[in-house]
Amino acid sequence: MARYIVRRLIWALLMLIAVSGVVFILFYVFPSADPAQLRAGRQANEDQIEAIRESLGLDKSVLEQFWIYLKGVFTPLDLPGTDSTGPLYLGHSYQSNADVKDVIVSDLPATALLVFGAVIIWMAVAIPTGIISAIRQRSLLDRSTMITTLVFISAPVFWLGLVALYLFAQDVGVIPVFPGIGSYATADTFLSKCASMILPWLVLAAATAAIYARYLRSQMIDVMQEDYIRTARAKGLPEKRVIGKHVLRSAITPIVTLLGLDVAVLLAGNAILTETVFNIPGIGAETFNAIKRSDLPMIQGITLFGAFFIVTLNLVVDIVYAYLDPRVRYE
Amino acid sequence: MSAPLLEIDDLRVHFSTDEGVVRAVDGVSLEIAEGEMLGIVGESGSGKSVASLTVLGLTRAANAEITGQISFEGQDLTAMDDEGLRRIRGNGIAMIFQDPLSALHPFYRVGNQLVEAIQVHRDVGDADARARAVELLELVGIPDPGRRMGEYPHELSGGMRQRVMIAMALTNDPRLLIADEPTTALDVTTQAQILRLIERLRRELGMAVIMITHDLGVIAEVADRVMVMYAGEAVEAGTLEQIFYDPQHPYTWGLLGSLTRVDQPRLARLAQIAGQPPSLINPPGGCHFRDRCPHEFAKCTEHPDLERRGGDAGHRDRCWLAPDRKREARVIASTGAIGLEAAKEPAS
Lengths: 331, 348
Description:
The structure holds two protein chains of two kinds.
Chain A: H1 2-29, H2 35-40, H3 46-56, H4 62-74, E1 92-93, E2 98-99, H5 100-135, H6 140-154, H7 157-168, H8 183-186, H9 190-224, H10 227-234, H11 239-270, H12 272-278, H13 283-292, H14 296-324
Antiparallel strand pairs in A: 1-2
Chain B: E1 6-17, E2 20-32, E3 37-41, H1 48-55, E4 64-72, E5 75-76, H2 82-88, E6 93-96, H3 100-103, H4 110-119, H5 126-139, H6 145-149, H7 158-170, E7 176-180, H8 188-205, E8 208-213, H9 216-222, E9 225-230, E10 233-239, H10 240-245, H11 250-257, E11 316-317, H12 323-329, H13 340-344
Parallel strand pairs in B: 3-8, 3-9, 6-7, 7-8
Antiparallel strand pairs in B: 1-2, 1-4, 4-5, 9-10, 10-11
Helix pairs in contact in B: 4-5, 4-7, 5-7, 7-8
């Protein structure tokens, strides 16, 4: 197991360097316009552009630029032309006049609250639903669950969000129950922040719970055909034990992997639609604004942050999977 | 003579599917006494596995229609509820399966799976259960059993995995062991070891064994009595000697004739039975073997019962041919396939 972890760590490090390289090429090498001008944004003046050009070392060779860039990301470094030091120097947004890293750090709590709350709800709904649908295949419960989940998967997230607001928001809703748009920003206590998240949680959880329920159902149906389940029954185990200990244990492992990756992607900014509909100041919303403003450093920084996050969580997921499935440890 | 341990009377198992009713088992009757080894031989799709799973009630499903009688130690298993059957599984009757790699849970250690088999039927503490598990691993001939307890199934060799399966089946001293093709997934040397093991355990523990296989060589090695199955039915049943030396059914002749023999000259082509097994959804009327049998005649359109016709006591078959006609027609030399072709070319 230890050797497996070390191997995975080395891979992760290589992946991170490769990802940095790709981001570098996308944002530094490809743009056909003057990168310094692009970095500076629309409202920059000549001095700023010069400063950026110097700090970016645009007169140096591409490889040297990449090396400086890597150093900025991975090591503590005094970067010329800026006030920042590495590591994790993700760029400086001249339009918000802040380091991208600082902006991300301030946006992260909102996104984290949104994602983790949604995760709890969607797992709490999806797991029992998936199990029961699998055990009672083709029953009325199973069929109605499958149709409902299909509806939630097909519905666009922003549409679900708008419908939820229309129905339940305290200010504009038909049944005013939950806090509506913009309530996160005005909430001051943790509890009131959570209250403002109820509708976003439900919306984000709706589609995902549907996907997970269906996935768990099909995994369980597959596992129930396996020979070792027949052996478990032939041993005289009660059906509850067969399902709960033998079937579920096998069926849940790919779900755990999926969960890890979904959380990573959402935290990296994939909740963009939910955040914009509900006006939550998270990473997704930040990405949306940065794109609108063509704030290149911000977009680039968030991309790199997201990629790093996903590579790291991928590593964690791989290790957890090896813990759950002992056969994988020997690869 | 004491009552048989297990008695099956005209068992039929039909599954309703989208393509029609699959008559997986369509008339199987057998008896097995304490300590006896019955071999059930037949090709894939003959219904041998379904019949044995039905004994333990493992084929019960919404689309399954099970008729006939199964009684074990005097108890009626066909009428029994699930809870009653559950108490017998892994207890009075145990079952082992063909591929031990897929038949053991890949995520749980061997010790864990053995202890579970012990604790489901007996109120035994963890320490005692683990001690018993180690004992069982020793009994089936696994070296260094203490260490094996902590290993996962994929860390063991095929032969050892099958020994673990056998150990798991023996945890509660079953009176009957059903072995469904236990050696098919193993290489020949390991196969021999496992068969010897089962035979030794049978003698030591006084356990009856039903050995299901498609391999006549395995049957010849260990069985006391044999039942030959074809297309869901038993087509012949008798003692080992009766089946091998005085076979009464053309299908049995075909099976025996298709064996390659070391003591005979090598054939250019392996002998085979022409044709394919019939569909279990629409079995042909009359004898199920009719379409492939070179000796078919007028009476074969009538479905024969399994009865004693010309052989010794206890030797039953489903073939309408007159007994002396059978002795003429059957050719089991390795010179060729059954019946017709051998009649065309004289035996060399």
